[in-house]
Amino acid sequence: MPANSSLDTSILEQLSAYGHKKLVFCNDADTGLKAIIAIHDTTLGPALGGTRMWSYATEGEALEDALRLSRGMTYKSAITGLNLGGGKGVIIGDSRKDKTETLMRSYGRFIKNLNGEFITAEEMGTNTRDMEYIRMETSYVTGVPESIGGAGNPAPFTAQGVYLGIKASVKEVFGTDMLAGRTVVVQGIGNVGEHLVALLRKENAEVLISDINQEQLTYVARKYKAKPIEADKIFGIDADVYAPCAMGATVNSKTIERMKFAIIAGSANNQLKDEVLDSELLLQKGILFAPDYLINAGGLISCYSELTGFGKKRTVQLTENIYDATRNVIKLSKSEKISTNIAANRIAEKRIADVKKIKSSY
Ligand SMILES: NC(=O)c1ccc[n+]([C@@H]2O[C@H](COP(=O)([O-])OP(=O)(O)OC[C@H]3O[C@@H](n4cnc5c(N)ncnc54)[C@H](O)[C@@H]3O)[C@@H](O)[C@H]2O)c1
């Protein structure tokens, strides 16, 4: 490859733009594995992040996803008070057609070679069974089934944290955190979304749901008495809360223009397409944004408990902190007249900077 090829320079430029530490490209012709592991920051501990399997249209899209998601993990661990850094894996492919035992085990071998710098878990397109396959090759994996000593699927804890983030935001906007009678639109009713729908319906919120998977849409609508809506109708809907629980970047200048929501609070990572511009647009429009990496940390907490041996009780306690943490971010954003996103970033960055100081004394 020529020394100044565009691929060579643009990737390194992208790495330094947000301070990423390392990128690993995984290619295994025998199993068909094509994956990228991005390690953003390891100041607080080993980089932990899920592995997403998705049919990316281009390798560039996969790379961008890995870079954005791994950075989000650094902030998520920092603001949640966990001793973990940020990383993320993406496997290029259709999880329903291309996923095999050997593909996941081959991916596990790449993780093994990182000697603990990266630890993974499930994400969109991967599940506890896949983590079990990775565990056959390396111990640097969490979210393995409870039957083999793991903490199991982290999604219920993620949903619990999102639910508390929604309640804390509703309290700010409506003066009470009761959800009865409030309307919530949940976009994506997979692993996390379905659990969230269950929690919301239990409190008698009116729940509208959308998913590109029609079978799942019908199933969840029937089971929880939620109202299905067409995917492209979401942004014109008059509802109290929009809970994005599918892909990222759904909050952008085009969608914000159409939004009538009072609150955005969901599990999807990187909901804002442009962190700075979009959080400012939301602030101007008076839409309260509960930072995604703050309220979707329940799953990460569950993985952390699995690593440290804390157990479920501690996972529940730490997840419950998300309510107060959300209230604190909103308070800081109001007192400093900054977006909630910037407020959350400040808290996370301060913890990383503080821990850096004590690390220099070891
Ligand atoms: N699983 C966790 O514990 C966890 C933790 C933190 C963050 N997250 C984030 O939450 C989101 C959901 O994760 P998950 O584990 O539930 O994934 P999942 O794959 O189980 O569910 C995602 C659902 O979204 C649907 N979907 C995809 N594109 C859509 C679209 N354009 N419109 C409507 N629906 C669409 C899919 O059909 C699927 O049902 C992801 O962004 C993930 O990164 C998950």
From TrEMBL:
<dbReference type="InterPro" id="IPR006096">
    <property type="entry name" value="Glu/Leu/Phe/Val/Trp_DH_C"/>
</dbReference>
<dbReference type="GO" id="GO:0016639">
    <property type="term" value="F:oxidoreductase activity, acting on the CH-NH2 group of donors, NAD or NADP as acceptor"/>
</dbReference>
<feature type="binding site">
    <location>
        <begin position="188"/>
        <end position="193"/>
    </location>
    <ligand>
        <name>NAD(+)</name>
    </ligand>
</feature>
<feature type="domain" description="Glutamate/phenylalanine/leucine/valine/L-tryptophan dehydrogenase C-terminal">
    <location>
        <begin position="152"/>
        <end position="360"/>
    </location>
</feature>
<dbReference type="InterPro" id="IPR036291">
    <property type="entry name" value="NAD(P)-bd_dom_sf"/>
</dbReference>
<keyword id="KW-0547">Nucleotide-binding</keyword>
<protein>
    <submittedName>
        <fullName>Leucine dehydrogenase</fullName>
    </submittedName>
</protein>
<dbReference type="InterPro" id="IPR016211">
    <property type="entry name" value="Glu/Phe/Leu/Val/Trp_DH_bac/arc"/>
</dbReference>
<keyword id="KW-0560">Oxidoreductase</keyword>
<comment type="similarity">
    <text>Belongs to the Glu/Leu/Phe/Val dehydrogenases family.</text>
</comment>
<dbReference type="InterPro" id="IPR006095">
    <property type="entry name" value="Glu/Leu/Phe/Val/Trp_DH"/>
</dbReference>
<dbReference type="GO" id="GO:0000166">
    <property type="term" value="F:nucleotide binding"/>
</dbReference>
<dbReference type="GO" id="GO:0006520">
    <property type="term" value="P:amino acid metabolic process"/>
</dbReference>
<dbReference type="Pfam" id="PF02812">
    <property type="entry name" value="ELFV_dehydrog_N"/>
</dbReference>
<dbReference type="InterPro" id="IPR046346">
    <property type="entry name" value="Aminoacid_DH-like_N_sf"/>
</dbReference>
<dbReference type="InterPro" id="IPR006097">
    <property type="entry name" value="Glu/Leu/Phe/Val/Trp_DH_dimer"/>
</dbReference>
<keyword id="KW-0520">NAD</keyword>
<feature type="active site" description="Proton donor/acceptor">
    <location>
        <position position="88"/>
    </location>
</feature>
<dbReference type="Pfam" id="PF00208">
    <property type="entry name" value="ELFV_dehydrog"/>
</dbReference>
